[in-house]
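ok so i was messing around last nite and threw this chain in just to see what happens. nothing serious, just curious
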Amino acid sequence: MVYSSSGASSTVTMYSSPTCNCCDKWANHLEAEGFTVEISHTPNMAQVKRQEGIPFNLGSCHTAVIDGYRVEGHVPAAQVKRLLEERPDIRGLAVPGMPIGSPGMESPNPDDHETYNVIAFGGAEGDYVFATITP
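result:
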């Protein structure tokens, strides 16, 4: 399945389980922000995460690759755009787990939304908070 939108600046390859609906919602979120998302369904996400160098403690339900970076989990499109603009010397960004209110994990009740961190990983300085997202 391929999601695309006109004027997309970057293609995202997203690996996810074929049964995960929140992953498709995250792909739709990126598409709405101008990305093209190509989805590769795989039954073995653990293998994908190992191959892409995703630290176990930063894992989530899907793994994406964009322009040499890894994006793990429900990272907001604004932070992916910032990553591509600033081009820090890191492996990628991660939102560990599945925080309520992150893109693809929205709740009908906004009061349920959580504050969460976007973590930069794989750089010489070690992991650090790239952004804190508040409801």
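not much to say yet. The CA atoms of residues 53 and 75 lie 17 Å apart.
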